[in-house]
Amino acid sequence: MYPLSLMIIDIDYFKAFNDNYGHAEGDIALKQVAGVIVSSLFRSTDFAARYGGEEFIVLMPSTDAEGACHFANQLKNNIERRAIKHAFSQVASVITVSIGIASLTGEDIDSEKLFKQADTALYQAKEKGRNQLELYNKNIATPLN
């Protein structure tokens, strides 16, 4: 089980997508992104779920930070290659995602800490311009709530 990695995936500018294309098209886009995420998983132990709104999580047991970053980069590229039109994005003409990643290596798994770290990394990826991934490290600032 150890190491353990978690990623939070956020669809970039999804509110603008819904506002301009409508919620029915937004639901279709969510299903398409979910399909790419699920089809990108390559092990039965990996787990993906919609977390809420336009966010998804991927939990990867026995995956260190390097492996999680490699997977996240492939996933980000797979979603972009799916070419779901998004004329109202500020980063591309298709749907893109920002991904925050956190990894734990020790036996002391604190699920709340892991999630907060992935969320902090996601916030940083969005602050840096979106359409990218960010690995949590203790030097990145915690987002203000």
What is the element layout, followed by pairings?
Blueprint: E1 4-11, H1 14-21, H2 23-40, E2 47-52, E3 55-61, H3 65-81, E4 97-104, H4 111-127, E5 133-135
Parallel strand pairs: 4-5
Antiparallel strand pairs: 1-3, 1-4, 2-3
Architecture overview:
This protein is α+β, with helices and mostly antiparallel strands and 145 residues long. The protein has one domain (4-135): Alpha-Beta Plaits (2-Layer Sandwich), CATH 3.30.70. Helix content is 41%, strand content 22%. It contains four helices and five strands, in the order βααββαβαβ. The protein has helices at 14-21, 23-40, 65-81, 111-127, and strands at residues 4-11, 47-52, 55-61, 97-104, 133-135. It has a five-stranded mixed beta sheet. Helix 1 (14-21) crosses helix 2 (23-40). It is globular, with a radius of gyration of 15 Å.
Provide a short characterization of the protein structure.
The protein has 145 residues and is an alpha+beta fold. It contains 4 helices and 5 strands; from the N terminus they run βααββαβαβ.
Please outline the major beta sheet: 5 strands, mixed
How many separate structural domains?
Answer: 1
Distance between the termini: 32 Å
Give the radius of gyration: 15 Å
Give the strand content: 15-25%
Mean pLDDT figure: 94
Q: Largest sheet, order of strands side by side?
A: 2-3-1-4-5
Helix amount = 40-55%
Sequence of secondary-structure elements: EHHEEHEHE
What's the quaternary structure here? single chain
User: What is the CATH topology assignment?
Assistant: Alpha-Beta Plaits
Fourth-tier CATH superfamily name: Reverse transcriptase/Diguanylate cyclase domain
Number of helices: 4
* CATH level-1 class: Alpha Beta
Low-confidence stretches: none
CATH architecture: 2-Layer Sandwich
Secondary-structure content class: alpha+beta
Number of strands: 5
The best one-word shape is globular
